Each structure stands twice: as structure tokens, then as C-alpha cells.
Amino acid sequence: MRAVVCDRYGPPEVLRPVEIDPPVVRRGQVRVEVRATAVTSSDTFIRGFRLKPSLWIPGRLALGLTRPRRPVLGMVFAGRVDAVAPGVAAWQVGQRVYGFDRFGFGCYAQLKTLPADGVLAPSPVNLDDEEAAALPYGGLLAWSFLKGRLRAGQEVLVYGASGAVGTAAVQLARAEGARVTAMCGPAHLDLVAGLGADRVIDYRVYDVTAGPDRFDVVFVAVGNRVGPPSRRDCRGILAPDGTYLAVDRGRPAPGADDLRLLTRRAEAGQFRPVIDRRYPLAELAQAHRYVEGGHKAGNVVISVGVG
User: pLDDT tens across 38-81, in order?
Assistant: First the structure.
């Protein structure tokens, strides 16, 4: 089967298209024919091993000392069930599915195995495979932080609202009935407004932490590398009992129920994927280079193809 492997840490050029043996379906697993995947910021960090020094040793132990232990990267996928292990009744061959495998990777390939009870769900009926592949990463991370913290009528600030996590957070907060103030760069103001934000602010011209507004939830949807406001910075804009959340603080653990919620939101028209660019699998290195540039809006999707 066709795949792209990463057999050493380094720049995007370490990614190599190859032919490898298909994965064997083991007990309790399903195998998916991957039609589409996406390049996430996490993928680029793993490929380049761009972790902060305090995480270097545990990161090498978890991912591989001198090279990735799992050379086929990729965390999200959409496609068709190709095979099921004996005794697995929840899935049928040919069924459209999508999902997220945060630690198993393997999505930069035509076939991928994962546990039948993993983060896997039927694909939204109103989305094609590339659109479905654009939902899980940002959607699951955003929902993992926001779940149980939103109520109708709350004031919510999403800082970094144009990325994969931010575009999802805006829509999911609106679906829960919150009023959303979204902050992003000037190039994406119209895009974010079109997602349903009640107010969109250019972070370069307005310092929200110095303003008079108060928020029940502040969600920083971008990593520390871009210098977003800290919890301390936001003390003055949090309402009494307000909550500060940040993607770099916490350990989200999304499950299949969370993915099924995204399916319902998508099928109800409350959550649509934002796709910035599309690349074929053979151009995965170029896609990684673009994502690393830090200017994408939403998701960068990879067409894996079949045959």
C-alpha cells in the first residue's frame, strides 16, 4: 500500500512516499481504508521533535529515541471500513467512518488499523471524506476543554479563533447558546465572522485584556509559541467564577461519544469544517511546510486516494 513515512526527526523533507505492507487486523480491531487525512500542528511537532526542553526526555521515550517509533504519522482519518476482526459486531465492511488516533498514528497511509472501541464514529452524512477528516482534531480538542463549561447566555472569548481548534471552538460554543467574542489576525476576520461569532476582533489592534469586557469563559485556542494571554493576563476580564482554558494547559482525552457529538452538530448544520488547503498524499511534505508557517485557517487536508 502507499504511505508516507518519517524515519528520522527533522524538517518536512524527511517525509518519504513509500510502498509498505498493509497492517494486519488483530483481535478487537477494525481496518479502515483511508480516503483523507489532515496535517495537524501536533503532526508537525512530532515530525520535527519541536518540544520544549522540559518535555525532551519523556517525549523521546514516548515517541522514539532516535527516530519515530511509529514511522507512519497522522492522527485523523476518514474513509471506509475495510476489514473487521472476528467477533467485532459494531462495524461493517464498507461503512463510512472517521476518527482520531492520537497515539497510534498511522493515518498517512491507505490502510490503518485501530481498536474497534477507539475514537471512531460513522461519518456525518452531509460531509464528504475530506470534510470529515477536517473535523476530529480541532473539534475534539476544543470540545474536550469546553464540555461541561458552557451554558446558554454566557460570554465566551476564543483567542486564536482562526485555527483548527479555534474555528471549532467558536461554532461549538455558539451551538451551546453562548455569545462568542473571537480574536484572530486581520486576514481571517471575515472567515471567523461567518462561523457565527457575535463579535470578531483583530488581536493586533486591540488588547482585550485591558478592556472593560468580562467573560465567563476565556479559551486560548493557540499554543504558547505565539505568545497568547496567560491566566494572569486575563484576571481582569474574567467574570466572578469565570474559567480560563488553554490548549497548552491540560490533558484532553476525547472519546467516541465526543466524536459522535461532533457528528450530530455537523449533521444539524451547527459545525462545519474549515479547510484552508488540500494536497495529495504525495505532497505531504509541502503540506507540513505550510502548516509550520503558522498562517493556516482551519485545516489542511490530505487526499489519500484509493487503488
Answer: 999 999 988 987 666 666 566 565 666 677 888 999 999 999 99
Among 8-12, 51-55, 173-177, 267-271, the minimum mean pLDDT is found in 51-55
Percentage of the chain beyond pLDDT 70 is 93
Domains of the chain plus CATH, in order, are: 2-135+273-303 (3.90.180.10), 139-246 (3.40.50.720)
Kind of pairing, strands 2-6 and 15-19?
A: antiparallel
CA pair distance 263, 132, nearest whole angstrom: 9
**What does 248-298 look like in DSSP terms, one character per residue?**
TBS-----HHHHHHHHHHHHTTS----EEEEEEGGGHHHHHHHHHTT---B
SS3 call for 98:
strand
3-state secondary structure of 41: helix
Q: For 243-247, which contacts have Cβ atoms below 8 Å and span 24 or more sequence positions?
A: 243/149, 243/216, 243/217, 243/218, 244/218, 244/220, 245/145, 245/146, 245/149, 245/217, 245/218, 245/219, 245/220, 246/219, 246/220, 247/141, 247/145, 247/165, 247/220, 247/221, 247/222, 247/223
Residue 224, SS3 per DSSP: helix
Amino acid sitting at position 85: A
CB 293 within 8 A of CB 28: no
- What's the confidence (pLDDT) of residue 50? 66
The DSSP symbol for 116 reads T
For residue 185, how far is the Cα from the chain centroid? 20
Say which residues have a Cβ less than 8 Å from residue 127's Cβ, sequence separation at least 6: 135, 266, 273
Q: What is the pTM of this model?
A: 0.92
pLDDT tens column, 95-145: 999 999 988 999 999 999 999 999 999 999 999 999 999 999 999 999 999
